Task: inverse folding
């Protein structure tokens, strides 16, 4: 038993960190805040580096590593607020692979396809009403439900209407899944529990968001001075930072645990994936909110990067079922081992 | 990252489980008094005779000398078997004993270690004072060296089970002129020493529940050879004991609390039906606790993992701060679930008692505020507040 990354895993973390620091600093969102984000330009490079097929077996075109490595990489994706379209590519490739759609799979793994996410509007819409994320130029759109996971062509959706996104660096549309919609690839939960993997990876992504907000707040608390001292000297601020660190630790540990449980194919897979999403989304939202407060009036502006973490934390929470829905669900599982 | 335990470790788990299932005391642990003392000593003796005492103690001192993974397994099985908490033996097993092992003389080891392990002697702590709590190094209890004796005068407070204890780990000021961390000594104190008086302190759980005592020392004489480590070096000796306290023994609490949440879900279902668990505010709280308990266990695994790689010991305070607060939320919810029954506090029901008990989890052994100072300064690198 060892929850720390191995030397090989640490190498993967260092590689993706390096890449994202250079290619996807969070400052990029400031520049693009009015017109979406440029992240799709990164997909071919990520494909070349192998990050898109990390958890797929080699005979299915992937790198042959485990859910653990995927978790560690999605944590970094969240830390850099990478477009959630990345879920569409990585999970889409898994669906295509499981469905035996080799051509589609390889195209996805190369990073040359645009993939959007469809997410149920829940009680805010009808049973076939979705939000589409990053789907305006999408070749395929990922739709994951408890029972199965699928990739749809964009024209499977009707009444598509662009709306202003709260997280303004994302392209958001409303749409209705047509009755005649046919997926390009589909895999039932019995064959591959993509739903649990998606929740676990969204948990990892939210861990990253929470850590990003934590680090931004701590950095600011060390340099911003009032009353002649860095504000991090004062316990009111110091203890807020400590709270962020405590939450982030809980979220990271549970995400690590959940990823390993998925690899074991344990009957507790769903329980730990849901627990991970709950703890991590709660962490991401609270850390982002505390990060605003630590920054004072500056935290309330569009000039600071803080608001991007808060808004993305809410996106992570609402995709594939919010805290409210996940809490309802976790009570339906038997006692885990 | 890896969740698997080796074949040998799994074998060890089965042995531990078998022994615990066959030997765990079935009678309920008394909440206080001599009966509780006898119960705790008997259970410790039972573990000793069975060869399962002192999991973290080195073999040469009679312990099991287990590595961290096996300690984790032991405590997981201990909790699963619903083995009793022998709180009275805690200080001896987790503070006093390990401190003597690390810093004691051969004579001190010979005299004091076996009685702790074998369930013969109860140890208590004499650290906090009326004016030295979070600021422990401000302690004033004075010890003057006279020949081959220390003459102790002053007062200690919040000494858990002091009235039921045989020995005390006592921090005294041996050099009042040195800077506050430099003039302290760590002393083995016999609770039968003339000059010691105890004042019991009732705790909030129910009338007549004595948990703490205040100790008054009036020229109590202690042999100088009872100083552990060097005279005036007691602060660093004490810090190493506090380190042990943050060790593996609390693993069993995490597991216990996870079970408790499951029990609460069942109790809530039985009492109020499935709709209560599903829709009510309680449902949301139960669900969040289920997720948080899973995370608390994962944090425990992480603490063990970090310790095995000898990295970032200060990060264990992240787990401590989280776990103390989650335990409070679990017990508060348990209290809320029983509704108006919570207004009654019968002797034979634990739910109210343990709810009130958890108010100590964010105070004892370093308040959550002190924990947050440690996290802010030692983990996050923020400037020191003091």
Result:
């Amino acid at each position: 038993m060892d929850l720390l990354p191995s030397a090989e895993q640490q190498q993967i973390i260092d590689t993706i960190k390096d890449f994202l620091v250079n290619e996807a600093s969070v400052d990029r969102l400031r520049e693009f805040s009015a017109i979406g984000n440029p992240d799709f330009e990164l997909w071919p490079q990520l494909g070349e580096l192998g990050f898109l097929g990390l958890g797929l077996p080699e005979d299915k075109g992937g790198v042959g590593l485990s859910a653990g490595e995927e978790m560690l990489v999605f944590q970094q994706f969240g830390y850099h607020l990478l477009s959630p379209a990345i879920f569409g590519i990585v999970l889409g490739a898994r669906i295509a692979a499981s469905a035996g759609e080799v051509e589609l799979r390889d195209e996805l793994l190369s990073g040359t396809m645009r993939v959007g996410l469809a997410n149920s509007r829940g009680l805010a819409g009808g049973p076939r009403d979705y939000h589409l994320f990053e789907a305006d130029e999408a070749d395929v759109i990922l739709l994951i439900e408890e029972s199965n996971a699928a990739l749809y062509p964009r024209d499977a959706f009707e009444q598509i209407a662009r709306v202003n996104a709260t997280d303004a660096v994302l392209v958001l549309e409303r749409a209705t899944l047509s009755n005649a919609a046919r997926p390009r690839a589909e895999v039932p939960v019995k064959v591959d529990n993509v739903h649990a993997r998606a929740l676990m990876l969204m948990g990892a992504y939210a861990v990253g968001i929470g850590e990003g907000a934590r680090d931004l707040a701590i950095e600011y608390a060390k340099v911003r001075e009032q009353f002649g001292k860095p504000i991090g000297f004062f316990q009111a601020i110091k203890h807020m930072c400590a709270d962020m660190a405590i939450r982030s630790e809980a979220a990271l540990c549970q995400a690590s645990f959940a990823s390993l449980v998925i690899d074991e194919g344990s009957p507790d897979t769903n329980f730990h994936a849901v627990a991970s999403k709950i703890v991590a989304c709660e962490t991401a939202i609270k850390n982002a909110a505390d990060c605003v407060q630590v920054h004072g009036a500056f935290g309330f502006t569009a000039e600071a990067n803080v608001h991007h973490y808060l808004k993305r934390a809410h996106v992570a929470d609402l995709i594939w079922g919010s805290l409210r829905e996940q809490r309802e669900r976790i009570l339906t599982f038997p006692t885990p081992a | 990252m890896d969740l698997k335990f080796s074949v040998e470790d799994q074998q060890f788990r089965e042995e531990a489980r078998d022994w615990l299932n066959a030997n765990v005391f079935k009678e309920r642990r008394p909440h206080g008094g001599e009966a509780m003392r006898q119960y705790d000593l008997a259970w410790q003796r039972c573990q000793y005779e069975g060869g399962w005492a002192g999991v973290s103690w080195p073999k040469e001192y009679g312990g099991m000398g287990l590595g961290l993974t096996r300690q984790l397994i032991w405590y997981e099985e201990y909790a699963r078997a619903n083995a009793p908490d022998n709180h009275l033996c805690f200080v001896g097993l987790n503070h006093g004993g390990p401190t003597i092992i690390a810093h004691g003389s051969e004579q001190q080891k010979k005299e004091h270690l076996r009685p702790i392990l074998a369930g013969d002697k109860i140890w208590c702590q004499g650290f906090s004072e009326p004016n030295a709590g979070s600021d422990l190094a401000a302690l004033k209890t004075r010890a003057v060296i006279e020949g081959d004796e220390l003459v102790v005068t002053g007062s200690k407070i919040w000494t858990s089970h002091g009235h039921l204890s045989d020995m005390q780990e006592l921090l005294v000021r041996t050099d009042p002129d040195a800077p506050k961390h430099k003039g302290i000594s760590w002393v083995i104190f016999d609770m039968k020493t003339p000059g010691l008086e105890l004042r019991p302190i009732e705790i909030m759980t129910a009338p007549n529940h004595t948990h703490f005592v205040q100790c008054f020392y009036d020229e109590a004489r202690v042999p100088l050879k009872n100083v552990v480590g060097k005279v005036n070096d007691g602060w660093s000796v004490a810090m190493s004991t506090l380190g042990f306290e943050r060790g593996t023994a609390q693993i069993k609490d995490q597991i216990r609390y996870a079970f408790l949440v499951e029990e609460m879900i069942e109790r809530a279902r039985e009492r109020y039906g499935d709709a209560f668990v599903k829709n009510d505010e309680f449902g949301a709280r139960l669900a969040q606790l289920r997720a948080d308990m899973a995370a608390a266990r994962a944090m425990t695994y992480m603490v063990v993992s970090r310790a095995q790689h000898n990295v970032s010991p200060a990060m264990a305070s992240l787990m401590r701060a989280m776990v103390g607060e989650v335990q409070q939320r679990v017990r508060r919810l348990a209290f809320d679930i029983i509704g108006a029954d919570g207004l009654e506090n019968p002797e034979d029901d634990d739910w109210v008692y343990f709810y009130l008990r958890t108010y100590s989890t964010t105070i004892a052994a370093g308040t959550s505020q002190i924990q947050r100072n440690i996290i802010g300064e030692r983990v996050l690198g923020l400037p020191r507040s003091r």
